[in-house]
């Protein structure tokens, strides 16, 4: 049985449909990322799970027990869902000390005084803030506030913790450390975590399961490798990674392979027609294109345009049959004709 | 908060608002007092007041003229002063700015006494001027003087809205105009002020509306020449026909509300528009004051002259008069200084009670009122429901009721309702009337601090397991505590200053300084009036000092 199940969830704000029927299942102990652009409905979905938004159709079950079920008219208020929630702004109560912020959930659960002190201390130690219990949130740095928010959400040991872009308020360096730290903390506790982000690199780094949303619908759900290497739709393949999206003529589709025409040159690729998007797009990740020495199988002649120096490598821009192709390489390139190789298993044809 | 509790609070508030108004409307269609069984339904009171009563027509026209006139004075002056004090490098602007708001905190009836004592036919300044030029070059009891004084004392209302709008305007728009070659006053007229038009429009409607509600100034300054306005007409009506004519009074009240309610409604719409306007360009970063060069000195002169005329002259004359044993032409000041009036004041038990009651109703009553406003606000907080919209409109009703009218309606309600009758001559009736009159104001004070709480702070409480009531108690209330204390101080000053609400509720046990002043003025006891006014001013000063201290503490 999945830890958390979402069934045909619909939600609207006034006349605007925000969630248009979401189905998803999250396994116990896994870290799930809800990934999507702003307005895709990912935060709304997270808030619906917490009971902070009210859907109008569908169901949400935790351990098979409905916390929301439109059919059975079940809608538990947030305080009875027993979840942990980490807000994007952290939402630490400015009038309570760090200790009191964390202790509040335990007090509401009628714990004894000694018990509360012990568990809050454990929880703060767990996030590396054991010595700061007497401070007020305004006396902490952004990274420390985030840790307090996580400690507050975990202290009463909820079976599921929800995190709404918890890293977006940290600077770039801190964010990369926090990714690893949060993932190992959650894994150590063995709880289920649902994580909202618009940053695909963050999703790939933290998640066991990535759920890609667009326009209030689920696009694809799978492991980070699934999403990055086997995107199901044109949207998914363009959303993940950095890509060359080329307009191509499809000459032939056969046995899961497709032959395309680009400016008079023939290339083989993987047939990824999903029926939904209009045909005639070839997608290849920047890092998959290779600079080749001469003509050959699945190679294109290209005219050099310009280069950008990125530090660890170069990004070269070429013109190919009237379209721009970007290539990553650790070699310099100069003006003149070049050959680009697109490996057939990494060129996805829609 | 549970839904049922929210609805109960809304219903109770609705009852508190609608019962007095409903009673007045009901009374306006009766032939006699509502408590007389022989009264029958009729519209004869309307026919009499609207078509036969010349005084009413005159009062109505006067109100309209005075409201329009004072608006024409207050709005331009308020805008200019806001621009000068907020956007330019005027010398001493930090010092002057808080002083501009002082007339808002002084009861207008006290200010009116001050003008009489200073500028009346035997006023302190008048006598001095006469000694200088042989005659008094002005006449205080004319309609023109009334309009000018009303206009000048309402400058702060315009200033308040115009200055806060100007503050949220980025100075880049002005600098752009300066660098295209516009002088400072051209910048004000063509850039800054047009950009805050919605706020100015709002303040215009507000001042016009306050003009219709005017009571203290025309009561004191209009009386000698029998210049009646709507509120003073209502007040005189009590005695005009010998017996209190409930039906006629009710009709006058209904007419006033019918004028003010649309104005209040327009204001509400304008405020929403103004807020939208500000939000669009709420970029208040790095405001640099505009250098206005040599214009600084005439500008300071203008503001100081206004301040001197509207605050310093009347207030100091009033205070001085309260320490003078007598005053008239040829009376010297120094030999006549005395504390006798204050000693006399202490000899009247009702006056002493008035001072004690004022303090009680302002401090304890004010705290209870803020508690009530907070309760209503919490009941409506983050509640998307038709009830909230209903409440939004209900709050407009007490706003449309000047204090005099609300006091009258409350007085009748306590006469009419058997359960309330025993409380009629207690401070409770007065407190209820005060709370009702300042409902919209108090609600806005409290909601301003509620609006500053991010919704996620309360959501975080819910998620960790707190019920709505626990969130209110453990998160919301502690967070608005400072805001509530600030609101209480403002309400304290407001209640100390209030004079019209208590006029009809005045009875042994419910005296307050404001209503005592109104009734004492009628008897011509100038010595007592000035002494009591001085006491009132001191109490207000205490409130303002408290506000200042709290403000400083919050900054620290």
Automatic annotation (TrEMBL), chain A:
Q: Name one GO molecular function term.
A: ATP binding
Supply the Pfam families for this chain: ABC_tran
* Key word Transport present: yes
Specify the ABC transporter domain's residue ranges.
4-240
Q: What are the UniProt keywords, alphabetically?
A: ATP-binding, Nucleotide-binding, Transport
**GO BP field:** quaternary ammonium group transport
Q: Which InterPro entries match?
A: AAA+_ATPase, ABC_SmlMolc_Importer, ABC_transporter-like_ATP-bd, ABC_transporter-like_CS, Mo/tungstate-bd_C_term_dom, P-loop_NTPase
What PANTHER family is this protein classified in? Answer: SPERMIDINE/PUTRESCINE IMPORT ATP-BINDING PROTEIN POTA, SPERMIDINE_PUTRESCINE IMPORT ATP-BINDING PROTEIN POTA
Q: Which family does it belong to?
A: Belongs to the ABC transporter superfamily.
**Under which name does UniProt file this protein?**
Sulfate/thiosulfate import ATP-binding protein CysA
Classification of source organism: Bacteria, Pseudomonadati, Pseudomonadota, Alphaproteobacteria, Hyphomicrobiales
Give the gene symbol: cysA_3
UniProtKB/TrEMBL annotation, chain B:
Compartment(s): Cell inner membrane; Cell membrane
Q: Name one GO biological process term.
A: transmembrane transport
The source's superkingdom equals Bacteria
Q: Does the keyword S-adenosyl-L-methionine apply?
A: no
- Its source organism is Methylobacterium hispanicum
Keyword Transmembrane helix among record annotations? yes
* Coiled coil feature spans: none
CDD domains, A to Z: TM_PBP2 (cd06261)
Against PROSITE patterns, the record matches this protein to: ABC_TM1
Membrane topology classification: Multi-pass membrane protein
Name the UniProt key words of this record, in alphabetical order: Cell inner membrane, Cell membrane, Membrane, Transmembrane, Transmembrane helix, Transport
Q: Which GO terms describe its cellular component?
A: plasma membrane
Q: Where are the transmembrane segments?
A: 7-29, 64-86, 98-124, 144-166, 187-212, 248-266, 297-318, 354-380, 400-420, 475-496, 528-550
The family assignment reads: Belongs to the binding-protein-dependent transport system permease family.
Q: What residue stretches are annotated with the ABC transmembrane type-1 domain?
A: 60-267, 355-550
Specify the protein name. Answer: ABC transmembrane type-1 domain-containing protein
